[in-house]
Amino acid sequence: MQQKLDQLKQEALASIEQSTTLKELNDVRVAYLGKKGPITEVLRGMGKLSAEERPKMGALVNVVREEITEKLEAKKELLEEEEVKAQLASESIDVTLPGRPVSKGSRHPLTQIVEEMEDLFIGMGYSVMEGPEVEKDYYNFEALNLPKGHPARDMQDSFYISDDLLMRTHTSTVQARTMEGNVEKGPIKIICPGKVYRRDSDDATHSHQFMQIEGLVIGKDISMANLKGTLEVFAKKMFGEEREIRLRPSFFPFTEPSVEIDISCKMCNGKGCSVCKNTGWIEVLGGGMVHPNVLEMNGYNAKELSGFAFGIGVERIAMLRYGVDDIRHFYTNDSRFLQQFSVHE
């Protein structure tokens, strides 16, 4: 039995020495010290020995097993160290090589337009308000003088989620919520930027989703002159100091009187060209005096207070300002298009 153990030890030590990988070394450990290995078999056969031989043989088996284990651990440390060295050598970095250029991103052109307009109106004393995109029918229509069955609802074909919920068709919903939430019914001066949704066929000038910035001012003695002066400042800031505006009669259910606002064409300076269809003017937004019904529905005394409201299409402003001929360019994530508007601070 002792001779067999010596032979097993020599074989095990030789196999350990010949191992070149951690996997091979683990296979040696399992082969000699595993549950089905020869060392274990010797231990199981000790029951056949006499009471005098059993302690001696047990001590001998333990000595052999410890020698093999120590050799295994030493070889394992050596192989792990060699493996780390090989990995470091294969993954070495030449710090003298030139670096790879990293492309910088920037704010989306529509975001840039929104932030610029927000800065403009904040400088004029406006506050920025936001509201939910999934809106109640009441705030989207009824609180804005559009009761159920009103024919003007057809002007904004809507995405309804239920009989009472829809994707908002304009950010005027934020105006309605702000007026309702103004407990003191005092002056209001806000703009409401955000996404809106309408069931429209996507083409070069239309999208089922687009962005608006709407404004609302309520106070004493607010007149159409205040609206015109505000929009003149806006036009000159966004399109140049030489721009002029004109107001044309129009219709919106929540304003009375209502107007469409045009700016003089910057391509021809009002002389007429293909961009302005030879009129010298380009339509940019709509507005008007807040309808007395809207004021009364939201708790205001229309005899004491008045106000004006306006709605600006962000994509419309961006297309005119940058000469973009297709609204879909803003949403296709084409890096070639977006890189033209990169602004690195």
Automatic annotation (TrEMBL):
Cofactor(s) needed: Mg(2+)
Instruction: Cite a single GO BP annotation.
Output: phenylalanyl-tRNA aminoacylation
Q: Where in the cell is it found?
A: Cytoplasm
Q: Which UniProt keywords apply?
A: Aminoacyl-tRNA synthetase, ATP-binding, Coiled coil, Cytoplasm, Ligase, Magnesium, Metal-binding, Nucleotide-binding, Protein biosynthesis
| Bound cofactor: record note | Binds 2 magnesium ions per tetramer.
InterPro entries attached to this UniProt entry: aa-tRNA-synth_II (IPR006195), aa-tRNA-synth_II/BPL/LPL (IPR045864), Phe-tRNA-synth_IIc_asu (IPR004529), Phe-tRNA_ligase_II_N (IPR004188), Phe_tRNA_ligase_alpha1_bac (IPR022911), Phenylalanyl-tRNA_Synthase (IPR002319), tRNA-bd_arm (IPR010978)
EC number(s) on file: 6.1.1.20
Quote a single Gene Ontology cellular component term: cytoplasm
Pfam family, any one: Phe_tRNA-synt_N
The highest taxon in the source lineage is: Bacteria
Q: Which family does it belong to?
A: Belongs to the class-II aminoacyl-tRNA synthetase family. Phe-tRNA synthetase alpha subunit type 1 subfamily.
Q: What's this protein's name?
A: Phenylalanine--tRNA ligase alpha subunit
What gene name is listed for this protein? pheS
